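Thread title: Can someone regenerate the structure for this chain?

I was given the following input by a collaborator and told the matching structure tokens would be attached. They weren't. Posting the sequence so someone can regenerate them.
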Amino acid sequence: MTDTTERPYNGRARRTIATRAIRANVAQRSGSGRSDNSGDGIDSDGGADEDGSDGKLTFKTYTDPEYGYRITYPADWTVEPEVPGGASFGARVGSAGAVVYVDEGLNLTLGEYVAAFIDDLAADEHVRAVEALDRRDIALESGETGRAVEYVYRNGMCDQRWQLAYLFVLDGTTGYTLGVDWNDDDPFREIAVRIVDSFALGAT
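Best answer:
Regenerated them for you:
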């Protein structure tokens, strides 16, 4: 077991989950919740227009100016850079959102890096009935191997089922975490996987 002093999260996963739940609840109370999910990049008929050929879904690329990582995200999402080196992305309407964290000075294996997140998630008093859905390795263009995980859980803050898709990448002693979270009622998984799979390090 890795010494907890080396673990990078320190409740960060819990804060992300809480933020998503609070925002979703506010949207529902204001009448701008999942009944109109166009802000999540989902067609009105509930299907994902992955190529954007009918104009309903387009993507932008975010490149971090300091660390050089990049991801694609729905063009109508908001983007807020965060220190140090991270960024948060959110749908203007609906539950979905994404976040990138950068951790420096790590002395962990990729498996330990993932385990740190899972432990943090399990320690959250608001996360219940966690179920693992998928775990796979992703080969990045720059040569690194990332590990993607998907979970479903019941968010105790709003008593709803939520899903998350996270990617973990180590580049030397620098760790990158890309996470996408959404309400299980929203048909968002295909887009979440596309966001996760888009992560890249280095210049284009």
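The helical segments are 12-29, 110-122, 189-197.
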